[in-house]
Amino acid sequence: MNFPFYIARRYLFSKKSTHAINVISSISVVGVAVATMALVVTLSVFNGFHDLVASFFTQMDPQLKVTPVKGKTALAEDPILTRIRQLPEVEVATECLEEQALAVYGNRQQMVKVKGVEDNFNQLTHIQEILEGDGSFELHAADMHYGIPGLGVAYQLGLGYTYDHPLKIYAPRREGQLNITNPTEGFVEDELYSPGVVFCMKQGKYDKNYILTSLAFTRHLFDLEGRLSSLELRLKPGSDFERVKRQMEEIAGDQFYVQDRYEQQNDTFRIMKVEKLIAYVFLTFILVIACFNIIGSLSMLIIDKKEDVVTLRNLGASERQIIHVFLFEGRLISAIGAVIGVVVGLLLCWVQQQYGIVRLGSSEGSFVVDAYPVSVHPWDIVLVFFTVLAVGFLSVWYPVRYFSRRLLK
Q1: Helices 319-355 and 306-314 sit at what angle, rounded to 10 degrees?
Q2: What pTM did the predictor assign?
Q3: CA separation for the pair 394, 241 (Å, rounded)
Q4: What is the DSSP secondary structure assignment for residue 236, as one 8-state letter?
């Protein structure tokens, strides 16, 4: 057995001549455990919000989205896009065209994003799961085009699930000059009819801004025949997602971006990652402060065991071995605190997942979820555990060597 480790373990669990050393050692373990628990719980809550937001986005966002690098639109028959959509792993490919327009209903109006999609859009995404109303997902019937507004758009325009009169959509003409005496001539006007549903993603970016309609309507409205702003794709079940994505990126070259769901919402997820990192850094500083208790405990232990050090030297223990005894003592305190903190943190996360003890608000329905979401990621637990060990080990290294050498003089 490792001699310094054996002596350190005996010192940790044996009674000291001064009872205060036992108390301070216990406080040191508790301090490290509380800081560790806070790291586990906080990172798991950030993971919970991350997964919650991701679940909302994926209701409409495709698995993969191909967009032009230059300009807002590209030719639908571009050879690169044709090669991508013909890959054997692609199950559904939908052409989309998205532009700003003015929506007018009665005496209300609002700037909206009109997104034109093909009829297979409901096969590409989970749009059917977020529709509310008595109708179904329909984009057109003969020459009549339907418009499915977001819940926020419907509220702002006073539409309801079903609107009785056509919704007028105005888009600026792409060619010609604006006639100041008759400004309406500078706009293309068209009408959308109600399919009896609205969509609700519980995300303001979509619900308050978007209207879904047919691709043909959008191309005619914006005078962009034969063009698209994105090619949205879904792969066949069992496909190697990362490999197919890399293959598409090779085909796209520097002409098109190929984005997965997280990259499509890159700004949102980047902010969440930065917030999680900042929380991790601040809690690590708190952990460093908690480790000062370990330094105090070891300092008193070194003084308390002065006679034992003399005995160990007489028995042949080297200066290095004696220093390692107290180093192992500090490391044991850190390790025990880390294990207890991780276990308690995981237990609290489980309780929150099962029972939702900590709630977001006093009234139900005020938020998307009633309680703080929690998601435990194994790599976060590994990171927390080794962070605690590293901070604990580094914090005791210099003080132990300093006090031990003074004692050994």
Answers
A1: 130
A2: 0.72
A3: 42
A4: P
